[in-house]
Amino acid sequence: MTNLDGEIESWRAQWVSQAEVGDSTPGELRRKVVRQQRSLRMRHLLELGMGIVLLVFSAGVATRNPSMEAYVWTAVVWAGTILAAAFSLWNWRSLWTADLKSVTEFTEHYRNRCLAGLRAVRFGKAFLAVQVAISAPWLTGDYLRHRMTGTAFGLAVMVLGLLTVGFVLFFTHFQRRASLELKELNGMDCDP
Amino acid sequence: MSAGEEGIAGKATAIVEAQRDQLEREYEELWSNFGPSLARLASSYESETHAREDLLQEIRLAIWVALPRFRKESSLRTFVYRVAHNRALTHVWRRKRAGVSEEPEEIPDPRSSPESEAMQRVDRGRLMEAIRLLPIPFRQVLTLALEDLPHAEIATVLGISENNVGVRMNRARKLLKERLGSRERLRR
User: Which of A121, B74, B84, B136 is most buried, judging by how many CB atoms fall within 10 Å of its CB?
Assistant: First the structure.
């Protein structure tokens, strides 16, 4: 036995002497998996529900007030919603099927997930800017042409402002998280 | 429902239950074989007891979920270590992202129990702490080697070349010796 082998063997002897193994029965694990799947399904249903509400609401507005302006507004909302859904599908497509084969491949998969997250944030910010750029002048135009009362206009501007601030905060938080993760991942590259 | 349909439904239920029983048996056998090494793997990533238990629980869950997808393209051992290391990495990244700092493990006081046992615990604690201080890629190679995996299998688990395993192993060993040495000097 060489010195190096002896060194490893002595570390191994200390290493294997510690083993505190708790236990979980398959029943407990199955229940946990069911809970996780349920919460994931709820999240997807919520996202889907929000999209449907937006589409139905805008279609309802166009049906109740048939005018060129309402049709254009509905078309913009539908196009925006469909574009956002399509981007989300495209952005995450490779990540659904990724099989976690080895630690290196997994790290690469995780890196792609972070990059996809950052892409989604960039898209979200641009999308938000476009939505605000369309909604704000639209609302102002309606108010100036006396199609809206002062209270309704104030309320609409407040909702738009709150939503914008909420989304900006969400994007900033998400971006910070993804950037921190990427930093950690880059710390994994230490090969010569 | 007709008698024929009921028969088909009954058979389907029996098949699902048999598959479930089979999966449970496989999991229990796997855990009795790999449980102790996975607990050691968890302690190489987390020093604090609660965090370590959480990680071990996450590893159990990940293996349970992944087990039906195990296609026997690699050995069961390779599969288990891959899933466990991948889970441990996400656990550590998530904790760092949340800003949770790692508290170093308390090394036991040798005066609190019989001398030989106490010294063993101190040495083990010191080794674990030094291993946890290694950069993750070196730590992974070293802990897999300490579990007696040959270089070829370590390479398969990590997805790197055998040559790379050798390079990382040498650097890990050198760093570990330095850390253990400096702790020893501090103790004196």
Answer: B84
Chain A, chain B: beta-carbon pairs less than 8 Å apart: 119
A46-66 mean pLDDT: 84
Q: How far is A122 from chain B (nearest CA, A)?
A: 20
Angle at A77 between CA A49 and CA A141, to 5 degrees: 130
B36 or B105, higher pLDDT: B36
* Cα A164 from Cα A182, distance rounded (Å): 27
Closest CA to B142 of B154, B124, B159, B157: B154
Interchain contact, A191 vs B120, CB within 8 Å: no
Task: Scan residues 60-119 of B and list those with Cβ closer than 8 Å to A.
Answer: 60-61, 64-66, 69, 82-83, 85-86, 89-90, 92-93, 96-97
Chain B closest CA to A165's CA: distance in Å?
23
What is the average pLDDT score of chain B? Answer: 83
- Answer yes or no: do B128 and A102 touch at CB < 8 A: no
pLDDT at B112: 54
Q: What is the pLDDT of residues B59-94, one digit of tens each?
A: 988 888 888 888 777 889 999 999 999 989 888 888
Contact A91, A85 (CB under 8 A): no
Helix axes A68-97, A103-144, angle to 10 degrees: 170
Domains recognised in chain B with CATH numbers: 1-103 (1.10.1740.10), 104-188 (1.10.10.10)
Inform me whether the C-beta atom of residue B28 falls under 8 Å from chain A C-beta atoms. yes
DSSP characters for B40-71? Answer: HHHHHH--SHHHHHHHHHHHHHHHHHHGGG--
| Nearest CA among B74, B78, B80 for reference residue B32 | B80
